[in-house]
Amino acid sequence: MRGTIPVVASEQASKQLSTLRRFLQYLLLYRKEIPIALTLVFIGAVTQAIGPFFLGWSIDRLIEKGNLQGLLLLLGLLALNYGLGIIAIRGQIIRVGWIMQRLLAQLRQDIFLKIQSLPLSFFDRSEAGDLMSRLLNDVNTVNQAFGLTIAQMLGNIFSLVGIIIAMLSINLQLGLLSNLVVPLMIFTTSLFARWARARFRVTRQTIGELSAKLEEDIGSVREAQAFNRVQTNIAQFDVLNAANRDANVEAVAITSAFLPSIDFLNTLATAGVLAYGGYLAVTGAVTVGVVTSFLLYVQQFFRPIQILSQFYTQAQSAFAGLERIFLLLDEPSELKDAPDATEMPPIQGEVRFENVKFGYNPDQLVLKGVNLHAYPGQMIALVGPTGSGKSTIINLILRFYDVFAGAVKIDDIDVRSVTQASLRRQIGIVLQDNILFSGTVAENIAFGAPHTTQADIEAAAQLANVHEFITSLPQGYTTQLGERGAPLSQGQRQLISIARAVLINPRILILDEATSSIDTRTEALVQSAIARLLQGRTSFVIAHRLSTVTQADQVLVIQQGQIVEQGTHAELIERQGVYANLYGLQLGAADTTVLQNEK
């Protein structure tokens, strides 16, 4: 166990160094701006470093000799010096701020692009609230640590170097005495930073969990009230909130104890310079002006060290956030286009599953050797109990996942050999709970074809039986919708989603419980729109209400990841198997009377 702590500390230091290198790669994107910023930083540091030297020099050379004219001239030079320093410091803050804000904007953009490109399997095991926390909270933490203070940090580094050179040049003994506390300061900073880094890492983790809980509870507030879960949700939120609070309190307790420690070392160094410098001045070894310069330099010397040390502890929170950000950016994109992937040619609509095996968990198969063949223009109905694998078949056609074994082919082309974009461009989908977005009605219809014309949008709406409803809205097609399509009803959202699918004119169409959860009148409109949409297209229809798939060319009955029956509605009724039993149960007739009538 004795060797564990150094190894862990070494690993943490290596991880932090790697994180810093990744962050510097973003900084180098603005390499043309960096020299300008560094020049301004250097000018600001020089103006701060030479001030005490001239003040000490004026005491010995001007004040003691009564040279009033020279003193006035020196004061003018100091005013010019510090004025130039103010301009340089202001310029460096503006320039560095410009660089940092663009860097952080690029970081947010990269996170968003990564989230959008990750496969669905990643989202199966991730929480939306935690991802939002990385995009917003973690980046904001980096902004707070680096956005404004990095300019000060760079200026203080240059100032510190200039002060050390000036102190050693004026008097070597006093210069070395002033620097005796530096090793103590480095040790103190390292100790506090190690404690702070561990606590800030916990704060970033707990704020991610808190954000995930908040996002989930806000999205399900209706269900919480309906099932009397409000108090339970509040209690769970209180636990997470308290964990985040305690982590932040511990981090603040560590950082709040740090500054007094640095102040003590500052006072110690000042007392040493005053005592030893006063002794040298009394014995005539140095002048009063030299001691005065050193006292001013000691104050300036510790000011940048204090700021740098404070920045170092604050940066621990930023590094904890950056670690989470880069962990997300390094998440492997499991579903990539093959290096030699080609564009999918215009689809005719033939779909084959050849002994397909797949599972969301490698240890548990969902599909166990599925074979199916859909001819162009056929309607394929997928029926079976929940969890049997119906939606999984749909996901594989769209290549949201890759099969473990076998192949999914469209027009005899393996979907893994073409680009995902060219494949999905020719497949339309209408879900049970279609998502509409904040924006106009027209923008929602044109979601899959944003550059289409208004005439095409209206033609798609007419085909989807929703044109009349849209024109009755206050602003027609330019009516603004809220989050998830509020305030439209479920049926109205469904009709708009059908228009969205119509607009891209897909050769393969997927309908997942598209007529459930809507009233009878709207269902008639939806069924009519779907009938038009299905014409001339290969379609896969998931339906629990078997009465909606009686006209299917093929009905596939799926149980436990296998196709147990296959045929037309009439053939399966004749067979008196699983499908016939399901159909009879849905009609409320467990006996064969109704089934015989169906024949």
From TrEMBL:
Subcellular localization, as worded in the UniProt entry: Cell membrane
Keywords: ATP-binding, Membrane, Nucleotide-binding, Transmembrane, Transmembrane helix, Transport
PROSITE patterns with a match to the protein in the record: ABC_TM1F (PS50929), ABC_TRANSPORTER_1 (PS00211), ABC_TRANSPORTER_2 (PS50893)
One Pfam family this sequence matches: ABC_tran
Membrane topology value: Multi-pass membrane protein
Key word Disulfide bond present: no
GO molecular function: ABC-type oligopeptide transporter activity; ATP binding; ATP hydrolysis activity
ABC transporter domain boundaries: 351-585
Stated name of the protein: ABC transporter related
Organism: Nostoc punctiforme (strain ATCC 29133 / PCC 73102)
